[in-house]
């Protein structure tokens, strides 16, 4: 139906920067909000940032002032610019989108990417 593919993860030094991208494709009717979640081993998956189709944003307290979420609606793409990275930011980052498919235009669904690993280490 709808596929979300993340990219941009990797190894970065503390204090460094990384930019994640996520592209939605497939049987898309509409996409509303898009966001990023992350999960470290033994921890609950948590919201990192979310952006609506009206460009309203919300961030986890732990990343406020350091991360910036943005989107390109024409490309069905969402980005996460991560600055001043800390070791505790190490996690698998997952892209999320809320929307509907062409097969079921009136049924709102959540779509998930497979994740991309971000490792912050010396």
Could you describe the 3D structure shown?
With 122 residues, this protein is mainly β. The chain has strands spanning 2-7, 10-12, 18-26, 28-39, 46-51, 57-59, 67-72, 77-82, 91-101, 109-112, 116-120. It contains no helices and eleven strands. Strands 2, 4, 5, 6, 9, 10 and 11 form a seven-stranded mixed sheet that branches. Strand 9 and strand 10 (109-112) form a beta hairpin. The N and C termini lie far apart (40 Å). The model has no long low-confidence stretch (mean pLDDT 96).
Total number of strands: 11
| Residue runs with pLDDT of under 50 for 5 or more positions | none
Report the helical percentage.
Answer: under 10%
Shape label: elongated
Largest sheet: 7 strands, mixed
| Secondary structure tally, helices | 0
Strand fraction equals: over 45%
Rg over CA atoms, rounded to whole Å, is 14 Å
- What string, H for helix and E for strand, traces the elements in order? EEEEEEEEEEE
Q: How far is the N terminus from the C terminus?
A: 40 Å
What is the residue-mean pLDDT, rounded to a whole number?
Answer: 96
Helix/sheet category: mainly beta
């Amino acid at each position: 139906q709808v596929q979300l593919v993340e990219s941009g993860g990797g190894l970065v030094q503390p204090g460094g920067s990384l930019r994640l991208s996520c592209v939605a494709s497939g049987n898309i009717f509409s996409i509303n909000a898009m966001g990023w979640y992350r999960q470290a081993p033994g921890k609950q998956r948590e919201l990192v940032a979310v952006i609506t189709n009206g460009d309203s944003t919300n961030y986890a307290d732990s990343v406020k002032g350091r991360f910036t979420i943005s989107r390109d609606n024409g490309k069905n793409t969402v980005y996460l610019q991560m600055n001043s990275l800390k070791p505790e930011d190490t996690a698998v980052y997952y892209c999320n989108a809320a929307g509907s498919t062409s097969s079921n235009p009136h049924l709102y669904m959540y779509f998930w990417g497979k994740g991309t690993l971000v490792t912050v280490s010396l």
